[in-house]
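Today's session is about reading a structure prediction critically. Students often jump straight to the picture, but the first step is always the sequence itself: look for stretches that repeat, for charged clusters, for runs of hydrophobic residues. Only then move on to the predicted structure, which in these notes is written as discrete structure tokens rather than atom positions. Here is the chain we will use throughout the hour.
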Amino acid sequence: MAVLNDLFSQVGAWLSGVLRAVLPADLVAILLVVISAGFILTFLAACVTLAIWAERKVIARIQDRVGPNRVGPFGLLQSVADVLKLFAKEDTIPGGADRVVFVLAPLIALVPSLMIYAVLPWNWDATVARLDVGILYVLALATLPTVAIVVAGWASYNKYTLLGGMRAAAQLISYEVPEVLSVIPVVILAGSLSLWDITAGQRDVWFILAPVVGPLAFLVFFVAGLAEVNRSPFDLVEAESEIIAGFHMEYSGMRWALFYLAEYANAFTVSAIASVLFFGGWHGPLLPGYLWLVLKAALLFVVMIWVRGTLPRLRYDQLLALAWKGLLPVALVNLVLAVVVREIGAMSWHPLLLLVINLVVIYLLFRWYTDLWRASQYRAAAPLLEAATQGVRP
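Below is the predicted structure for this chain, in token form.
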């Protein structure tokens, strides 16, 4: 098991020794970075393919269907067949479109999601770039898809795509604020902006177990992440039932597929970042660290699929109200609580005690939310009940 856990360092050392025997040291460093990037891209392509297959299968089970089962064993090659189909489809560009910007928009959406993996700590020895401000790097790149969406809607030379792009930008910008605020408590607890240091600081206790702070920060981050990557119930950016079909209405073929690929890559990225920030990243028993990170990210992605299969889509006013009236106040209060938790040294308490405290808090919050929901339902039904009562004759 030690050999597997140190696999990346051993392979890197062997490859570095082989290259240094025939190439200059500077060129060897560049080649190692390129090889690492190629490995990550290959891994991400495989993850996206499996994520699409898993979503179809899980949603099918939720809806009492079979799901893809024709192409390949258990339908595993269905995504490959879809890619081949998209390659064969005609690639059209509107006559009045800005061709250069129209072509670049899908790349602007996809490339930032790939660049995030450069700072993701897969294991204690497996990080392409160990930045001291890794979380700032991630948050900065996470804002670029907003630019891509607006640019795609504008470059399509269609007023409906422009409206769809502006509406999407309003959604994404609204949820970026609570998402950033939900990360700050983790930075406070870890005392560092480095993703590697944040993961290393969870060797004994995961930050999800921080009293009150951990569950609230994760909830805000995860909900905001769903909205940032256009996952249901926040998928108004490209909802087929809306009057405006979305910013990519004029895209077809592989250009449309790049937006589709970016969405799934971003969804897996949010799951991986959440695993690093709240669930200990590579820390775990028995298995190598990189497998633990992949398993945790995959489990969180399954939760995304579960949410999509069970919750209805929000109205646009509900979507914005949730960001500004719901998540933002919770994130601000959580900042103050994070400082209190750090000052009293609560993270040094026994993990079971922290778990019990959080379960009690979650139960109380659930009861409070249930009471609020019932009260809102009663207020909504009160006029109808009053009208029905007045209309009844003795």
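Discussion point for the tutorial: Residues 216 and 330 are 8 Å apart (CA to CA).
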